[in-house]
Amino acid sequence: MPTALVTFASxxxxxxxxxxxxxxxxxxxxxxxxxxxxxxxxxSDFLNEDICIVVTYTYGAxxxxxxxxxxxxxxxxxxxLEGKIFATLGSGEYDYEEFCKSVxxxxxxxxxxxxxxxxxxxxxxxxxxxxxxxxxxxxxxxxVTAFQTQQAS
Length: 153
Ligand SMILES: Cc1cc2nc3c(=O)[nH]c(=O)nc-3n(C[C@H](O)[C@H](O)[C@H](O)COP(=O)(O)O)c2cc1C
Hints:
Layout: E1 3-8, H1 14-28, E2 32-37, E3 51-57, H2 70-75, E4 85-92, H3 101-113, E5 116-117, E6 122-125, H4 133-152
Parallel strand pairs: 1-2, 1-3, 3-4, 4-5, 4-6
Bound molecules: flavin mononucleotide (FMN).
The site of flavin mononucleotide (FMN) has 20 residues, from helix 1 and strand 4.
């Protein structure tokens, strides 16, 4: 049974709820998933997991990373996550020029760490509504499928 760490940054709760849905979707698929706020997570914690997931919002004047997730972002390329599966998702707002940029920033960092992308990132406007849930569940399934493919190779 694969393990997963879902870590998140959330100021007003939208990304915490996305992380909740992702974690529950993984648990429903038999994954040993846990969810931990990003300030309590080091990039090296991902070394103990099969599936590594970051959920983040985008903030600031220039589509910046949330302050509380910058350390994790900077540490990521310093750990070797070859053979691990990763997924990124998060919440943003269409009114801003660069929708969900922090999600893409984390995708780039995970790629530098050598991890394998499970599927396309899920980007949600503000709070996850019922019709956003299938995309999150699909990404959870893609994580499990990518893990199984990796195990078989
Ligand atoms: C000052 C400020 C700047 C923001 N900048 C962006 C941005 O550049 N791109 C984007 O997609 N969303 C941006 N947002 C929207 C937030 O990412 C969005 O509200 C998100 O759902 C907050 O997530 P949370 O509830 O988990 O804190 C910004 C919001 C604020 C208040």
